[in-house]
Amino acid sequence: MAKEKDQNTKEHKNLLISLLCNFSSELKLILMAFLVLCTLATLLPLIPSSFSISASDLRFCISRISASDSVNSTTSVVKNPPESDNADTKPPLNDKTEPLNGVTKRTFTGYGWAAYNFVLMNAYRGGVNSFAVIGLSSKPLHVYSHPSYRCEWIPLNQSDNRILTNGTKILTDWGYGRVYTTVVVNCTFPATKIINPKNSGGTLLLHATTGDSDRNLTDSIPVLTESQNSVDFSLYKDDSDSDSKFDYLYCGSSLYGNLSPQRVREWIVYHVRFFGERSHFVLHDAGGISEEVFEVLKPWIELGRVSVNDIRDQERFDGYYHNQFMIVNDCLHRYRFMAKWIFFFDVDEFVYVPVKESIDSVMESLKEYSQFTIEQMPMSSQICYSGDGPARTYRKWGFEKLAYRDVKKVPRRDRKYAVQPRNVFATGVHMSQNLLGKTYHKAEGKIRYFHYHGSISQRREPCRHLFNDTRIVFNNNPYVLDTTMRDIGLAVKTFEIRKIGDRLLRTKQ
């Protein structure tokens, strides 16, 4: 029995020896690794505490290795990247430059851009041989330098010749620009040239230069592309305004802030009724058309009476009042050949004509003028007339209960205006200074507008104070009772119910 036990032990020893022989190299590696770890464990306490390897250092090393690998794995490497046409790279100033005749020459190297040379909104055809390009440009550039523009028509048919002409820039912001100013570039080609005469298509390029005397920095911008058979040349005939799609078109400025849905509701239904069936309203959303406001506009959008343009992206470019000069000029040229008259005023202003007149009769009497201005009737936006009792007063619409007119004498008040767009090349907020024809400034007996300043941005009941007098003095300012708009309220509400039903009855302030 003991003999068998000794034999088994001997066999186990032989098996262990054979395993060690077969895996000797692996065992050496394991022993070496163990030895290194023991050595590190011994030395780490002796290393100064200021020395450390952070996770960011490790990521940096790894990224360097991966970047090197990606370059090595690329099949083709560009050794000398092409230089940009606009980038004239200069070496930095050498501090060891030797003076010449005692004078050290210093150099100045510009990098990057403080503002864009040109920010395009859109371009429109203005006739058989003219175009209008609307956009923004650096305000200091136009105030202190001499930027210029050239227009080039490139036919789609390459066998036709390109045509070049100088562009005429129109600055419309009356000095109100900020980082950016609005620029309307008029591209008028020679009168003998009809651009795209065969309606075969082409592209309009705008070449914008900065006026830098040291470098010819030019940006060539494709601003308009006409496809084949896309131009209706009949629009540009002298008598084509009789076939205009709209008699009256409203071009609104940028809508921003926290607007009251109820005030917008009152404004839009009043003017849809006022201007009639052949009218249209173009609104521009710069952040002011919330979901609640849009619900108020939606019925009229569905009826084709209102269009909304989302212009929130223009907020990237710091211009006066959300770039409203650019917005109204874009609207002017977009609808220039679609409307007989275009009106410019705000959504807290209500246009009015005397009871015995109509908007059609007034416009007919003013048709010899390219533009007329409209006198303002300033109304209080917090004093209400309580002739029907407080309970009924609060249920009335804003323009019904805000019935006190400011009669303080001032040198002048802002006016709004309307134009015959075919005669206008560029426009402003309060009037146009770039037009053909006459302007009429004494239309107060024919047409006026009631201004409820600030009421559109109040998300609450507008009545802060109630009065029942015909004349009052409030905050040292004289007011008189004016029920002109109040008397129209019932007719406006009835019109709304007839056109879109009662879907807006629960509109919030």
What does this protein look like?
- It is a single chain.
- The protein has 11 helices and 24 strands.
- It is an alpha/beta fold.
- It has 2 domains: 117 residues, Immunoglobulin-like, CATH 2.60.40; 264 residues, Spore Coat Polysaccharide Biosynthesis Protein SpsA, Chain A, CATH 3.90.550.
- The longest helix has 21 residues.
- The N terminus is likely disordered.
Count of extended strands: 24
Give me the secondary-structure category: alpha/beta
Instruction: Please indicate the count of domains.
Output: 2
How is the CATH topology of the largest domain named?
A: Spore Coat Polysaccharide Biosynthesis Protein SpsA, Chain A
User: What's the assembly state of these chains?
Assistant: single chain
Biggest sheet layout: 9 strands, mixed
Low-confidence stretches: 1-5, 49-88
Q: Give the C-alpha Rg.
A: 37 Å
What do the pLDDT scores average to?
A: 86
Shape: extended
Strand content: 25-35%
What is the percent of helical residues?
A: 25-40%
> Under the CATH scheme, which class of the largest domain?
Alpha Beta
CATH architecture of the largest domain: Alpha-Beta Complex
Count up the helices: 11
End-to-end Cα distance: 107 Å
GO cellular component, one term: membrane
Enzyme class: transferase
Transmembrane segments: 29-47
Protein name: Glycosyltransferase family 92 protein
